[in-house]
Amino acid sequence: MHIVVCMKVVPRPEEVKVDLATKMLDRAGARSVINSSDMNALETALAFRDAHGGKVTVLSMGPPPFEPYLRVALAVGADEAILLSDRAFGGADTLATSYTLAAGIRKIGKVDLVLCGEESSDGGTSQVPPSIAEWLNASQATYVERLVPGKHGTVHATRVLEDGKETVELSVPAVISVVVGSNEPRFLDYDRWAFAQSAKVQVWNEKELCGDPQYLGLKGSPTAVAGLREVKKAGRRRETVTVTPDEAASRIKAEIDRAKIARS
Ligand SMILES: Cc1cc2nc3c(=O)[nH]c(=O)nc-3n(C[C@H](O)[C@H](O)[C@H](O)COP(=O)(O)OP(=O)(O)OC[C@H]3O[C@@H](n4cnc5c(N)ncnc54)[C@H](O)[C@@H]3O)c2cc1C
Known about the structure:
Elements: E1 2-6, E2 9-11, E3 17-19, E4 24-26, E5 32-34, H1 36-52, E6 55-61, H2 67-76, E7 80-84, H3 94-108, E8 113-117, H4 128-136, E9 139-149, E10 155-161, E11 164-170, E12 174-178, H5 190-198, E13 201-204, H6 206-209, H7 245-263
Parallel strand pairs: 1-6, 1-8, 6-7, 7-13, 8-12, 9-12
Antiparallel strand pairs: 2-5, 3-4, 9-10, 10-11
Helix pairs in contact: 2-5, 3-4
Bound molecules: flavin-adenine dinucleotide (FAD).
The site of flavin-adenine dinucleotide has 32 residues, from helix 1, strand 6, helix 3, strand 8 and helix 4.
């Protein structure tokens, strides 16, 4: 099987600021990392390939500085890496992002599985994987923690639901989003480091992608941020007291009762 893993490079959440004037995230001062659940998607793909054969290609949309992160994925075990990068892709909302990624997947050719993370740590909409499936007219499953081959070229995906699990059978091509923490991503392989450094990361621009320009970037993004407000997290209250266990129990009960009254 040819598996494509969509990998987003995101700013470290704790280093992102919100620009209330422009209603945009100010990522300028933030260092970047590979989105956490995308590492779980990559591990799922590599384990599937190692057990059943095939090839794993990592695909990202973003500016040229994302390239080294694709090399990390190559050092971890991916076979090929592609970066979709062009000013025309900038300012994309989830519709335009999914269109661009789907166009990249179409250009790759025969792809059986597309694995994504369940959500990004910056945008966090979880809309991109199902949207890619719609653009490609492919089967889809979200919040998957386990993926195994089924009969007649299908795959079986176990989904994590709020109150249980379900296993669905999907015909390929299929787009699957993988739950964060569903596996232990392997560490990068130092023997592959030299290969990863010298491997060609293909960079495709708007022209090479052959997509419809009206669906790309800001032009293809119907989403507008209507407003932003800061939500202050309630700080944790802490108090150190020296009391007997009975006194501690009655103080805790009193605090819980007070909180219940305040909430009602
Ligand atoms: C009006 C508007 C303007 C925006 N302008 C910008 C901007 O200028 N610059 C900017 O960086 N963001 C911008 N964004 C944010 C941008 O929409 C999202 O970052 C992007 O669409 C992905 O959505 P998400 O983060 O919610 O992905 P989710 O749906 O939460 O991601 C799920 C999975 O999809 C895959 N995925 C998502 N994005 C990518 C990607 N780029 N490459 C590979 N795989 C991916 C990953 O596997 C990820 O785990 C803008 C958003 C809006 C609404």
